[in-house]
Amino acid sequence: MTYHPQLAAIRFGTGLAPDIAPPKSVPDMLARLQGPDAAALAHPITTLDAHSPRLQASAKANMARKQAAKLRSGERAAVDEVKAMRREFDAVFYDATLATLSRSVTTEDGFRERLNRFWADHFTIAPRRYIYLRVIPAAIEEAIRPRITGAFEDLFVAAVTNPLMLSFLNQAESVGPDSESARKKEGRGLNENLAREILELHAFGVGGPYAQGDVQALALALTGISHDKGLRPIFKSALAQPGQIRVLGHDYGIPDSTDAHRAETVLRDIARHPATARHIAWKLVRHFVSDDPDQELINALSERFLDTSGDLMAVYEALLNHPAAWTPQLYKIKQPIDYLSSGLRALGAAPQLATLTHRSKPVQLKKFVFDPLTEMGQRFMQPNGPDGWPEEQKAWITPQGLAARIDWAMTMPDQLLGRLPDPRSFVEIALGSHAPPDLHQAVAQAESVSQGIGLVLASPEFQRR
Amino acid sequence: MNDSIMASRRKFLRLSAGVGCSLAAHPLLTPVTLAAAPSDKRLIVILLRGAMDGLDIVQPYGDPALAGLRRSLLFGRAGGGQDLDGFFALHPGLTTLMPLWQAGEMGFVHAVSTPYRDKRSHFDGQDILEAGTAGTPPRERVGWLNRMLQTVPGLVAETTYAVGLESMMLTAGPAPVASWSPEVNIGLSTQTQRLLDRLYAHDPLFHAAYGSALATTDDLEPNYFEQTGEMLKGMMGGGGQYRAHQRIAEFVAARMREETRIAAFSISGWDTHSRQSRALKRPLSRLSETLLTLRDGLGTDWQNTAILAMTEFGRTARENGTDGTDHGTGSAMLLAGGAVHGGKVHGRWPGLGEGNLYRDRDLLPTGDVRAQAAWVMRGLFGTKQHDLEQSIFPGLDMGSDPRLLRA
Fold this sequence. Notes:
- The structure holds 2 protein chains of 2 kinds.
- Chain A is an all-alpha fold.
- Chain A has 26 helices and 4 strands.
- Chain B is an alpha/beta fold.
- Chain B is globular, with a radius of gyration of 20 Å.
- In chain B, 56% of the residues are buried.
């Protein structure tokens, strides 16, 4: 296996940049990943727990509004209060958006950004409530980012029990049929949503070794895991199904009692299951390497996963040391967020990014980030469902998706930067040795600088990795 | 000034005074240069990006050699052109400008170019055009219009604007300029569509998606890109990219009614390597609509206005194998406005016959576009010949007065 720095940056990082050298070797890539999270330090994103008081306040404001509507009194003030809270959380979201982009554009540890996005997508949280949408980056920052280099089971437990995930998958409503709460109040029952998605999406995959009975069992075992109105995690023993539950052949919990640790124990066993190893291996290969993943590579990762009890660094190392990861032909289509941020990175646009302030209205963020991403088919941080974003190239390079990418490539760099690099040297900066001769030729024939830049960014090679 | 332009002005107005580099980068703006000077004369410079084919815009149908060079690109009456002076005809795409010609408010200078020779690169050619230097790309990114502004006493902010979606070196430099841009997307020019098509040819996924995204019929119908632009534009409010050039012209005219005296912007789409007669439709309609909108917007100030539209170089005298033309040398420059000596094709016509072409391929330039611009500025603003030849267009020999302005 031959390591190629440019390919490393393109395929496993956030792209080439004019002033940032790509990592020198696989050990270098892994060392950076295990080192301090410099990008997060430079561009912080507040974690979910810090927002709890304001989330609590917003829940109160919503209640107050409902109450005011019922009483037909004080509605105006109540609505204004709700709106003010939304604006507050809008600002949180815009800050996180800029930080996310800035990290990708300036980092020297591109693999970490890619892994963070991969795991955030694997553990997709897609709530509907307005303010909850605004704190998705905060939840990712708290539950996922700090754990992408440790043991998979730690990441798994934190991600699936994160309060925003619990809210998204209705866990707070899930009540054990024999729980204290069910005995007091009729009509409340089990909600299987979280358990199903854990098995189907996060752990085994839809073809994995589980059946409806297992989903139900897991759901029972998870009862009691909940959150409050400030999205703080709490265990509500009144909702928990008492006693032991048999999940996938093992018993969990304490007989005749509720057990706050039961959920975590069963989740850790699921995380270490061979089916999970296979599913995670498949997902990693499919995301980083190919829509049609090489079975040999999947097996290699899966074995490493099991041999090391899910040591993620070992799995990444197995991925990066495998020849199949380094086929020189660029293949996977960059998703819009990666496409946009790698374009900005190649243009050296960090200073201009920093000027996209939002104050009271995100006009600039809309113009340069949100609207283009939406047009490309990836509304920022808002996939359609818990299964996250599609992987297949056909999902992204549709007539509309491609038109939006070309549009962005041809018009946005000039408007954002004002002063563009010479397109002929930009080919080199953006693609290095992956630029085909016909691209150099085409760029030389472009009738203006911005169209030359646009041709590079719209080229198939720049859209693949 | 109508309300929407006023609102746009408040929203987008910025002042930049960068030294030695192009106008400061503002996310919402790209440079539109307008400048005010203590004079009632106005100058508008339009950069025609892509190398406009002067031979097709101002067709020398009276030259016997033309027929042998242009087989499928019809010209003169056969091509639907309007006769100008018994020797030259105007491309049918500019027919709506004939009233200007007839009123003596539009003219041309033919067979002109910058000193740039032989490489014929759009980027270098445009840089040289905008820098106003001699034939090699400039070291400093400062435009001749900015250097001219530096010689004007009493220059104030918002007197000069660079308008539009393209960054412009023409007006970049130490003298203060303001910037404005309508928030619209550019549609793809024919040349860009062609180049993308080639890039996507070897990648079936992109080829298929791209083919569906492009309109297959008339070039003037909105295609997918324009629809996408419209969608985006709809989200942000405002007109679509079709109206970008009109909004620019309206803005410039409105500013000129106030204290602005100098403006510069560009119109792209002239790089017609294939199916030239189709490909020229849109840039020509943009150009004609721009000029008519300026005239209408300037009102009584039109009489004091000179518009120069110039391109980085021309195109080959002979057609190529795809009903188009490739990069050349000499081209035509357009003059418009009440202040110009219109109704005439100025310049010295070198002929297209054997031995008359530059390197047996291009229209031979017999004049320097810089000299034309220099004389116009001298006539409008009294700019000193010494400044024009030493600092604004370093190394230029202005030669004799081509009398491009009305006496």
